[in-house]
Write a structure and sequence with these properties.
heterodimer; A: mainly alpha; B: mainly alpha
């Protein structure tokens, strides 16, 4: 699974490269770099079996805790 | 960033297609309102129409601008961007949830031995391809998808006509009023998702027809949804409350003689097609919005990276279909109201305050 993740991200990097060529895309390179690194870390963690928290489940719990929910 | 222009008829079909794709998730409203779900759709439709008019009013104040640009204009550079992040989180969540729904549907009904993750990777790859091609390409097929959706609905309903029992709708309105209102809230926020169109309205070629185009799409899509809900109720009766995908269960009953079977396959293909359209549109909105937020020249470098993020989020968002369905009934309609009602309401309020101040200034100058 880890190898597959690395392979997929190598593919994504190669596919994105044509859109980042040239000097005028400096900002694009930075933004892409940050999101790419973040996505890679998240996917890797998911691949090795780290239990990532779901933001929507956290919001759900919060809403229920403050009494903002419909009765099930 | 280069803004792609779409025609107003494409915009209308986009709205219809977006609403049609809710046919996969009718169990959300059925499990709340039961066989009176049609009334929740009616009530929710009226509430959504009011929200729609509010969104159109906001868009008309800033011709040619999308939601992110409007937020920056109204709330300023910092607060506008912060509010835009919230909206982008909403669109991102919708893209992930719909990807997950599609994966779960395919896994539970068609490719039962294929892992959901494999289906989702393939599905998102096709969506990413569409997003790279741009908005024009995504919406170009909306008319064809809508027509296929209508044709498949009409054909399957003809085949199943003998099973329809109108008495299944009776006794009408026997569901408690609070449940009907809960169902209406769910319908207002989930299938109609009116704020999404604010991201696209700036790209419509002829802004003059915006209201007509929006309302036409909204009414046709809403009527389609109502027809699906009524058909499923008349065939399944009280069973609609317990099935995870009622429309698919109806299709499994639809066979026209022994030689002409497999209506469920037609319906499944239609649902996957509509989900493809919906996820591609949301995916495009997310990457375009992020690029707009950071002031990039092109959204294309972000497309594949965001595909993986949508994928990871879709995997972790809810542990099962059941958990998703329960959340969709209890809390999701209230959370989504923040994006559909509260934030647009604040935008409208701010516009009104600014207009009033400008009016006073002009009066003083005179």
């Amino acid at each position: 699974m880890i190898a597959l993740t690395i392979l997929v991200f190598s593919g994504i990097f190669l596919l994105t490269l044509p859109y980042l060529r040239g000097g005028k895309f400096q900002k694009e390179k930075w933004v892409f770099g940050v999101f790419f690194a973040g996505a890679f870390v998240l996917c890797l963690m998911n691949a090795v079996g780290v239990k990532l928290p779901s933001p929507l489940m956290q919001i759900d719990s919060f809403m229920k805790a403050i009494g903002l929910s419909y009765p099930s | 960033m280069v803004k792609e222009k779409i025609s107003y008829s494409q915009f209308t079909f986009t709205i219809i297609c977006y609403i049609q794709s809710f046919a996969l998730l009718t169990s959300f409203v059925f499990s709340v309102s039961g066989k009176d779900a049609w009334f929740s759709v009616l009530l929710g439709g009226v509430m959504a129409a009011l929200l729609f008019l509010m969104q159109i009013y906001i868009v008309k104040q800033f011709p040619g601008k999308n939601l992110i640009q409007i937020n920056i204009c109204v709330f300023g550079n910092v607060l506008g961007r912060v509010i835009s992040v919230f909206y982008l989180f909403y669109f991102f969540s919708l893209a992930s949830l719909n990807t997950r729904d599609m994966g779960d549907f395919v896994h539970s009904s068609i490719l039962t031995s294929t892992p959901t993750v494999a289906t989702m990777i393939l599905f998102l790859s096709v969506c990413a391809w569409a997003v790279i091609k741009g908005l024009k390409v995504i919406v170009r097929y909306s008319a064809a998808f809508t027509m296929i959706g209508f044709a498949s609905f009409i054909i399957t309903t003809i085949f199943i006509w003998t099973l329809i029992d109108w008495h299944n709708l009776l006794p009408a309105l026997s569901t408690p009023p609070q449940k009907l209102l809960q169902g209406a809230n769910l319908i207002t926020t989930i299938p109609f998702g009116t704020v999404i169109y604010q991201m696209l309205a700036g790209s419509v070629e002829n802004g003059k027809h915006l209201t007509r185009s929006c309302m036409k799409g909204f009414v046709i899509g809403g009527l389609f949804l109502m027809a699906v809900i009524i058909r499923d109720t008349t065939i399944l009766g009280n069973m609609v409350k317990v099935l995870s995908i009622p429309s698919y269960a109806v299709m499994r009953l639809a066979n026209f003689t022994d030689a002409f079977q497999g209506m469920d396959a037609i319906f499944a293909s239609m649902l996957v097609m509509l989900e493809f359209f919906k996820v591609s549109l949301l995916y495009y909105i997310v990457v375009y919005g992020v690029a707009e937020l950071f002031g990039l020249d092109s959204y294309k470098p972000l497309v594949y990276t965001f595909g993986t993020l949508i994928m990871v989020f879709a995997r972790i968002v809810y542990p099962s279909m059941m958990e998703h369905s329960l959340a969709a009934q209890a809390t999701t309609p209230l959370i989504w109201l923040l994006f559909e009602l509260v934030l647009p309401g604040l935008t409208m309020l701010r516009i009104a305050v600014v207009k009033k101040k400008e009016g006073k200034r002009r009066m003083k100058a005179i």
